Amino acid sequence: MATACARAGRPVDSVQLLAVSKTMPLPSVLEAMAAGQAGFGENYVQEGVQKIEALRAWEAEGGRPVQVAWHMIGPLQSNKTRVVAAHFDWVHSVDRLKIAERLAEQRPAELAPLQVCIQVNIDGGASKSGVAPEEVLALARAVAALPRLALRGLMTIPEPQSGFEAQRAVHARARTLFEQVREAGIGGAAFDTLSMGMTADLEAAIDAGSTLVRVGTAIFGAR
Ligand SMILES: *Cc1c(COP(=O)(O)O)cnc(C)c1O
User: Fold this and answer.
1) Which of 21, 115, 132, 198 is the most buried (most CB within 10 A)?
2) Is 4 domain-assigned?
3) Measured in angstroms, how far is the CA atom of residue 21 from the centroid of ligand 1?
4) Taking residues 145-159, what's their average pLDDT?
């Protein structure tokens, strides 16, 4: 990440690292936490909630109190929104208004607003989640108007591309969309997150303007 930031002429603290801990057990999360990692991403609702609760139990049993943020990054069905709204700090995978409305309605009042990103199907992959690029502005406007949610940005998962330039070209399209939403003033100053880049393409994503890379394999090893 530091090398990619230097190459792009960006300050190293302009990109956050989200550790994707899906399929990894709690001890792996604790090890990453001990090394200073503060944000974790989970794909599967049930697994994520179990880990969040296991961490709370570990703290209650005398583990060191921790301040970590849990990010839901996997596809979200409407029957799972309640448990997500009650446990997670962030959701990156909002791709339709109905999901956002449910999250807003179900976010417990005693918790901080749920931080959300809109997932964009940036390359038109047929089987993929995400709103079409031309629908992003309208969805962003509608989500930004909901209570109990803070619209933070956009998220993409492009089809795998080999080669820096091919990867960068797709990420650059997401960056352009991100700037369009920002320039329209949607979400205000809180709209600051472009969640893109994984183990295989984080350098290209950072070069194109990512502010948050979601990295599993390069941190925890193969799943
Ligand atoms: C699994 C996953 C990642 C991390 O992928 P790696 O290639 O292991 O870094 C990032 N984002 C999403 C949405 C994922 O599902």
Assistant:
1) 21
2) no
3) 9
4) 97
- Count of domains in the chain? 1
- Which helix (H) or strand (E) segment holds residue 39: the answer is strand 39-42
CA-nearest residue for atom 12, ligand 1, is 73
Residue 11 in any domain: the answer is no
Residue 165: predicted pLDDT: 98
Question: Measured between alpha carbons, how far is 112 from 148 in angstroms, rounded to an integer?
Answer: 8
Tell me, in angstroms, the distance from the centre of ligand 1 to residue 185's CA. 30
- Whole-prediction pTM: 0.97
176 has pLDDT over 90: yes
Gap between the Cα atoms of 67 and 33, Å rounded: 9
Both tokens assigned to 11: 């300050």
pLDDT in tens, 81-98: 999 999 999 999 999 999
213 within domain boundaries: yes
By most ligand atoms within 8 Å of CB, the mutation choice from 18, 21, 43 for ligand 1 is: 43
**Is 177's pLDDT higher than 80?**
yes
pLDDT at 9: 98
8-state DSSP, 8: H
CATH (domain of 148): 3.20.20.10
| Full residue range of the structural domain in which residue 152 is found | 16-220
Assess whether pLDDT exceeds 80 at residue 127.
Answer: no
∠ Cα 165 20 145 (to 5°): 85
